[in-house]
Specification:
Shape: elongated
Number of strands: 0
Structural class: mainly alpha
Strand content: under 5%
Radius of gyration: 24 Å
Helix content: over 70%
Number of helices: 2
Distance between the termini: 62 Å
């Protein structure tokens, strides 16, 4: 095997490894988004009283506290005349 063949084989192996890593990262991102979507759905169901479970209560309370904090910051920003231009993520 010549030097060129060795370099070519090494490059192909590196490309294959990089592609596998990129696929893994993409799958992890998709998994994170799936969990986030499920969480938003579960929060909505709890918030509307359609489901109830003790394991969900702390998370729901935490989300409500964060939403209240964002709402308070938005109110304070509007009163002070400053805005960061970011949309609120309160659902």
């Amino acid at each position: 095997m010549g030097l060129f063949d060795k370099v070519k084989a090494g490059a192909e192996q590196a490309a294959s490894s990089a592609q596998k890593q990129a696929q893994t990262v993409a799958t992890k991102r998709e998994l994170g988004q799936a969990f986030a979507d499920l969480g938003k759905t579960a929060f909505g169901l709890v918030d509307r009283g359609e489901i109830s479970h003790g394991d969900l209560a702390a998370g729901v309370d935490h989300i409500r506290a964060l939403q209240a904090r964002l709402s308070g910051e938005a109110d304070a920003g509007a009163a002070g005349g400053s805005s960061d231009g970011e949309a609120d993520i309160v659902e």
